[in-house]
Each structure stands twice: as structure tokens, then as C-alpha cells.
Amino acid sequence: MDNKDPTIRRILVINGKGGCGKTTIATNLAVTYANQQHQVALVDNDPQASSTYWAEQRSPDLKKIHLVPAHQRANMYQTQTFHNRLAPNIDRIIIDGHSNARDRDLEALIKQADVVLIPLLPSSIDIRAASRFITNLLTHRAFRNSPRPVGVIANRVQPNTQTHIKLEHFLGCLDIPAVATFRDSPVYIEAAELGQGVSDMLNSRAARKEAPAWRDLTRWIDEQSAPSARTVHDLRLRPRAAKRKVDEQTLRA
Ligand SMILES: Nc1ncnc2c1ncn2[C@@H]1O[C@H](COP(=O)(O)OP(=O)(O)OP(=O)(O)O)[C@@H](O)[C@H]1O
Ligand SMILES: [Mg+2]
């Protein structure tokens, strides 16, 4: 894609509920951006290291995703900032958040993000937990001081079921937009095992069905107001400012 938006975007995928699809969304989003010729970093913040495992399965023949294992502590010869540093020219940073991020942890993650995505499963238990998490997020001091776009993602949806209707009702009552819907499909499990995303698997009919929703999600993210003066161009032209900005992007544990 020649006309890709070069402005850096940092995207946090988070929810206080385990198993809602954070890693699935983060890895598939990373792949979708990489296949749009973006330079993508996937930051694994989760001690379970699922994104790290996913990246280890990824074939070098596919578009590169730069993994940042932020859940690991730096060794005695490195600072955490150095350990978490990003490769040059990265313009999409996707952070796979973990379910236990509270208070300071949550604050650090919020501060690193330009856009927040909250995956949500269509079950009453998940909806209840998510509404609590959304309230915590929107009322968090770090968020109120510097609000940023938040989107909810309906994940593992089986269209036209009772649970789907319940989810639609919940999403309709929220103050924040529902920005994507992904089906409950075995193609996601298959993709995860291969270190791929559905955008890599276009020879699969199930993956082709899902791919447009991923492109729409990247479009929504890219349309959100861009943080000023953080383009790759800017980083290249002003090395001193660039250094400071790269430090800002560098993720603290
Ligand atoms: N749309 C989907 N269709 C089918 N399976 C899915 C889908 N999304 C996620 N899964 C499966 O659900 C399980 C949990 O997903 P995932 O690991 O992405 O959740 P998570 O929120 O990152 O979990 P954790 O809180 O443990 O980090 C995985 O086995 C994953 O393959
Ligand atoms: Mg995970």
C-alpha cells in the first residue's frame, strides 16, 4: 500500500476479563497492518507470554512482526527501557495487555496508548465484567487527564443467537462505539497455532470471510485523530526530537 498513513499509532488491546480474545485481536491486527506494509511491533505485556509464543511460531517467509517481550524483566546488564526498545521505523505498535492490569499497571498501559480496544465475548458473565472494566477505564485518572478513542470489539460472535442479541443490546447502551465484530470461527485457532492471522490465510474460505472486518478495524483506528508530530518522517528529520519521542514510545514494564 503506497498511501499508507505513516503516523505512528499505539494500540492497546485490553480487558479485565481473561480469555476474551486480547491476544487473538492483537496478533490478527498486527498481521493485518503488516500485510498493509506497515512496520509493526507487537508488545507482549502478559506474563503468560501468549503473543511471544505466537511470534515464535511465525514463519520468516511471512511479513515480519517485531516482538517486544515487555513481560520479561531486563537482565542485569540492561535497563528495562533498553530491553523494551523498538526497532526503527515502526509505525504501528500493538500492545497485548493482560487481564490483571489495575491502578499503576493500568495507568502505565493507558499512557502508552493512542487508541484502546476492548474485546468482549457475548456472554452475560463477560458483559458484566466488561462493563465494570469500561467504567474503571473511563474513570481512571490517567484516562480522564488525557482521553483517547476507545472501541469495543464483539468477539466470537455467532450471528442471530440469543447471546448475540443480548450483546447487541449491551453495545447499544454504551457511550463508546462498537468498532468491529469477529465471528466464532476455528480459523482463529488454526491461525494462532501457525503464528499467523486471518489476513495471512487468504486461501482459506473462513479466513477470507473475516478479512474485511480486520481491514475495517485498521481503517477505524487510522481515522482516529493522530497524535501530533509523531510521524516516521518527523522522527527522521529531527534526530534530537526523535530520540525523545522514541524514548516516550519505549515501553516501561
Ligand atoms: N473469534 C474467535 N473464534 C474462535 N476462537 C477464538 C476467537 N477469539 C479467540 N478465540 C480462542 O479463544 C481462546 C482465548 O483467546 P485469547 O487467548 O486471544 O484470549 P485472551 O484474552 O488473550 O486470554 P488471556 O486473558 O488468557 O490472555 C483461544 O483459544 C483463542 O484461539
Ligand atoms: Mg492473552
Question: How many strand elements?
Answer: 7
Instruction: Please state how the strands of the largest beta sheet are arranged side by side.
Output: 3-2-4-1-5-6-7
Spans of at least 5 consecutive residues whose pLDDT stays below 50 are 228-253
Q: How many structurally independent domains? A: 1
What does this structure look like?
Strands 3-2-4-1-5-6-7 form a seven-stranded parallel beta sheet, sandwiched between helices. It is of the alpha/beta class and 253 residues long. It has eleven helices and seven strands. The chain has a single domain (9-240), classed as Rossmann fold (3-Layer(aba) Sandwich). Helix 1 (22-35) crosses helix 9 (205-223). Helix content is 45%, strand content 15%. The chain has helices at 22-35, 50-57, 80-83, 103-111, 124-139, 141-145, 162-173, 186-194, 205-223, 232-237, 239-249, and strands at 9-13, 40-44, 65-68, 92-96, 115-120, 150-157, 178-183. The structure holds adenosine-5'-triphosphate and magnesium ion. The site of magnesium ion has 5 residues, from helix 1.
